[in-house]
Design a protein that fits this description.
Elements lengths: L2 H8 L7 H24 L3 H23 L19 H30 L5 H32 L1
Helix pairs in contact: 2-3, 2-4, 3-4, 4-5
């Protein structure tokens, strides 16, 4: 990679797109549904704990979506060996962060459902499913990002 390409990679700017807006709206809807469920079903000490959980997971979701606009940031580390070096990899990192935002929003919904319906037997299955989905998304996009890096070297 020459110096000119490296300078472009250091200041990548991601513009708003329909895809990004759709991911943001989906995350907002999921988090709004989770907040309504918490406010509707919780009371007393439970309410405080559930709202704190909702707030923390909402902040993580918002951070993921925000970082999708800054794929060259020092906070974005997909993996030790996966460091975006070309524009295709940057685009994949953006998409990865958006999908992770949706996964974290879904995880917050399932965790809060588990806090509301403690005796329900399906909640642990859903929680494990979300973690498997999260891990699968990370592995899938890591492979895609590595492949995009190899194609750039040829």
């Amino acid at each position: 990679m020459n110096l000119k390409t490296q300078k472009k990679m250091d200041r990548v700017k991601v513009y708003r797109t329909t895809e990004g807006t759709v991911f943001e709206v989906v995350c907002a809807l999921i988090m709004f549904i989770a907040l309504i469920m918490v406010c509707w079903n919780a009371s007393g000490k439970e309410l405080g704990l559930m709202l704190l959980t909702w707030f923390i997971l909402s902040a993580v979701t918002a951070f993921e979506l925000f970082m999708a606009y800054h794929p060259d940031s020092k906070f974005v580390h997909v993996g030790a060996e996966v460091d975006p070096k070309n524009m295709k990899q940057m685009a994949l990192v953006c998409r990865l962060l958006r999908v992770l935002g949706v996964c974290v929003a879904l995880m917050s919904l399932v965790i809060l459902l588990g806090m509301i319906w403690e005796g329900e037997k399906l909640i642990p299955i859903f929680t494990k499913g979300i973690f498997v989905l999260l891990l699968g998304v990370i592995i899938f996009f890591s492979i895609l990002i590595r492949q995009a890096g190899r194609k750039g070297k040829k």
